[in-house]
Amino acid sequence: MSLKVIISGASSGIGKALAKEYSKNGAILGLISRRKNVLQELKKELPNSCFIYALDVNDIKACQSMANDFIMHVGLPDIVIANAGISHGTLTEYYDDLTTFQQIIKTNLFGTVNLFQPFVGLFKSRKKGSFVGISSVAGIRGLPGASAYSASKSALSNYLEALRIELSEFNISVINIAPGYIESAMTAANPYSMPFIMKVDKAAKKIIHAIYLKKKFIIIPWQMAVIGKIMHMLPVSIWDWLAKRSPRKPRKIEN
Ligand SMILES: NC(=O)c1ccc[n+]([C@@H]2O[C@H](COP(=O)([O-])OP(=O)(O)OC[C@H]3O[C@@H](n4cnc5c(N)ncnc54)[C@H](OP(=O)(O)O)[C@@H]3O)[C@@H](O)[C@H]2O)c1
């Protein structure tokens, strides 16, 4: 029987690459993003059946309607991937950045919760299913200039860990994928060099493999996993010294 997979943030980057790879492997997909026209174009490219949902993951009612529609047409999904996310530099001293701060936390954290919520009870009853969150190496330590993004991904990681433990007795996997740098629209404008940056198609294959293996937590690529472990262990004073010298993501000028 075909795998049924729901993916948010499917109109671009990692989500789009996941959609293409899963579809090539015969999965039936539910694809989510705000830009309907981009999803429609993607649907034409995919070899297998897919349902598209133009919605904002911050809208819980829209997420619930999507879940009901997908279940009605296809059945309960096997895998739900909360990949939609946004990233901008933020500085607390600027009043205008507070809106960006809220958008980032809302989309990256609550957008994930909103997407999972309609499926948790149903997965528990079925005693099967996988929830996947896409966090980031940026969530391991506080990154200067990216305070909102870093905080959102750190919070997301802790949320995923709590959910994983809550659901473990129901045979439900919660998988936390923490990418380093991946080639996508999100990283295209970064005005600094990005070590070990990975092609998006390769990243999608690695993510799908990790989901198949039901990994609890994985950093990709492996070089970033080594760096992530070191980041985690560094004493505060050394982290501060290093991070002060790290390049910074530009602020979002218009909200
Ligand atoms: N690229 C990296 O190096 C990297 C590293 C670590 C983690 N990540 C994480 O990986 C995920 C995917 O990133 P990416 O690099 O593929 O970025 P991307 O190319 O910018 O794609 C982001 C996707 O999220 C969707 N999205 C954003 N806000 C949304 C909302 N409110 N509701 C529904 N969809 C929304 C966008 O679609 P619409 O605009 O059409 O809504 C788009 O499809 C993100 O969570 C990101 O934080 C990326």
Structure notes:
- The protein is of the alpha/beta class.
- It has a single domain (4-244), classed as NAD(P)-binding Rossmann-like Domain (Rossmann fold).
- It is built from nine helices and seven strands, in the order βαβαβαβαβαβααβαα.
- The protein has helices at 13-24, 36-45, 60-73, 97-126, 147-167, 185-188, 200-212, 222-233, 236-244, and strands spanning 4-8, 28-33, 50-54, 79-82, 129-134, 172-179, 217-220.
- It has a seven-stranded parallel β-sheet, sandwiched between helices.
- Strand 1 (4-8), helix 1 (13-24) and strand 2 (28-33) form a beta-alpha-beta unit.
- Helix 4 (97-126) packs parallel to helix 5.
- The radius of gyration is 18 Å and the shape is globular.
- The mean pLDDT is 97.
Q: What fraction strand? A: 5-15%
The stretches of 5 or more residues where confidence is low (pLDDT under 50) are none
CATH topology name: Rossmann fold
CATH-derived architecture: 3-Layer(aba) Sandwich
Mean pLDDT across the residues is 97
Question: What can be said about the biggest beta sheet?
Answer: 7 strands, parallel
Distance between the termini: 45 Å
> Structural class of the helices, strands and pairings?
alpha/beta
Question: Could you give the count of β-strands?
Answer: 7
Strand order of the largest sheet: 3-2-1-4-5-6-7
Tell me the name of the CATH homologous superfamily: NAD(P)-binding Rossmann-like Domain
- Bulk shape: globular
SSE pattern: EHEHEHEHEHEHHEHH
What's the gyration radius in Å? 18 Å
